[in-house]
Design a protein that fits this description.
Helices cover 37% and strands 16% of the residues. The protein has twelve helices and ten strands. It has helices at 68-74, 97-116, 127-138, 161-177, 192-204, 211-220, 235-240, 250-262, 301-314, 331-334, 338-341, 343-351; strands spanning 16-23, 29-36, 46-50, 78-83, 121-126, 145-151, 180-181, 248-249, 287-293, 320-324. The strands form two sheets. An eight-stranded mixed sheet has the order 1-2-4-3-5-6-9-10, sandwiched between helices. A two-stranded antiparallel ribbon has the order 7-8. Helix 2 crosses helix 3 (127-138) and helix 4 runs antiparallel to helix 8. The two termini are 33 Å apart.
Length: 352
Amino acid sequence: MTVETPTPRTTRDDQHTEHIPFLADDGQYLTMLHVENPAITPTRGPVLLVHGAGVRAEIFRPPIPRTLVDALLDDGFDVWMLNWRASIDLEPVAWTLDDAAVYDYPAAVRLVRERTGADTVKAFVHCQGSTSFTMSAISGLLPDVSTIVTNAVSLHTVLPAGSRFKILGLAPTIERMSPTLSPRWGYMSEGPFSRLLRAWVTATHPECDNPVCAMVSFTYGSGHPALWAHRNIDAATHDWITGEFAGAPMTFFMQMRECVRAGHLVPAGTAPGVLPDLLARPRTDARFVFIAGEDNRCFLVESQQRSFDHFDALAPGKHALHRIPGYGHLDVIFGANAWRDTHPIIVDELRR
């Protein structure tokens, strides 16, 4: 991998982060991280960053010289990073996409608006933060969100063949063995099943010596590795991921199983207010921007292509799609050269 050096910037050293605890609309404890650069006055309004399953808000601030948060702050955005109920920084609970859509995001957007006085909020959402946020917006639960930039997957769920086999064929067996499935088992056992699975995954993923990297690939995709290309991430980030992944509940995986079977998001029915047919006309005026790494081995690029085609057919010319060659799933966010290759696309679309 050839890494170009961006304009020097030490992530977090020049940032002030306020940790704000708050409650989702069902009483679930969540946190919001408000990130500021004291030297820059925000001019573009608030943007909400929403992480995926089994990680946390800090996924947007990896140990690279220049992060997406840096790029947004420098461009004048007021940055808010949400730890929703899937965050590993919170007490683990069983959750579904419906729960986040109905209870977490309306409360989070309301908090940002109350704190900033802004009429509208923009959002960058990733993976299962994206699916659940899209579900919320489509269902009319986020009327104050004007732009949604979504990475990797949103409305349609198209998997590689190996991942499809795992979620359709193996997930019910795993559910009987454990209430969660966790990449953290790469270094911390939680009973005999976790040790057996780690041994098998390690034996079938010889591409590197980081057992969490191997467990991430088994848990969330099909590839060696699945969520990034080793050529795209530097050594510090590869080491850092060891502490950035933990479990996701089988309640989520079983819902995703039904979504994969259908080819698009399907409500779990665990929270009121989600549209029963999520392919119906969206109850939102938000502009959607679909980002897809061409090499994604978690959700194939076809996932975002189908979602864009669906939204574009309903509102021609309103929405946008960016298929990015050479990138996969999370390296869009924390790749060593993401500051040059992917972050400018995200920032530019949030500006519009």
